[in-house]
Amino acid sequence: MRERKNTARDVPSPRTAAVRASLSVAFAVSAYGVSFGALSVAAGLDIWQTCVLSLLMFSGGSQFALIGVIASGGTSAGAAAITSAALLGVRNTLYGIRMAPVIGGSPLRRALAAHITIDESTAVATAQPTRDAQRTGFWWTGIAIYIGWNLTTLVGAFVGDLLGDVRQYGLDAAAGAAFLGLLWPRLRALQPVVVAIGAAIVATVLSPALPVGLPVLAAALVAVVVGFTNWFGTGRRSRPTGEDAS
Amino acid sequence: MTLWQIVLVSSIVILALKLAGYLVPPAFAERPKPARISSLLTVALLSALIAVQTVVSGTAIVLDARVPALILAAGLFALRVPFVIVIVASAATAALIRLWT
Questions:
Q1: Quick check: A12 contacting B, CB < 8 Å?
Q2: Can you give the residue ranges of every domain in chain A?
């Protein structure tokens, strides 16, 4: 009896464990918001536009993609910027399909859930053992990151605004590093590594020939071709990338 | 297009993509091909953006301080250094190289 009591006190319930996982992920991820805010202002957006992106779009990869294309092409690359952000956002649709049975409930609840359906909320949810803990993990992670990401975006935007000339501080170089941080956890199998190298070569080679923004979209075709034919895919793994929650 | 139009249109597109997931029949997600193409799409776009951010200026290929800054970032990510520290170190590397050259 005594042993059972100790176990019950020391081992957290699945729901408590889900909350802890949510908060630690949220804390780490929210810090990215500072770099997003600073880089967005450096790309030419004002503080309000930067904050609206984090409030409405709320998808780190798409937000970085949008400001990345704007930084080099300005508003004339608008269509290419929107398309890049949208293509990177497609994975959120797959996360939604996966989360729909976990969320259940009314259309309003689902609409709110959709807004916070991102890499991290899906990943934390799918890692939990019970349906109840999955639901807890999803909402806690999504809401905590939403609050943290938007606060740090605001801080980053103010910092970027104060800095002025960004090249002097190397912020243009930091944009590449920011994308690399998002890409890094996805390079755990041969197939994504091949796609990453192929896409980088295609985008670089086409840059002198095409208007700003289009080389990045052309590189997306590498993923479509390799994904469709499953070149360099391994039979052992059903999912091509390690970190992906989809 | 104005910046505000770009910001609002792209945000609405992403919101619609997220909502679509809750409306699509679940069987679609279980098929390996759409899931594989979607996650490889993410990899290809991120990698292409890294390349363009690092070696392209406008429409010309330019090798400058951004290249060593990215190599340093790759090394730090391999050592599992936290994101924010990598960003700062990478920016500082480019800034120092520009200061000294």
A1: no
A2: 14-172, 187-246
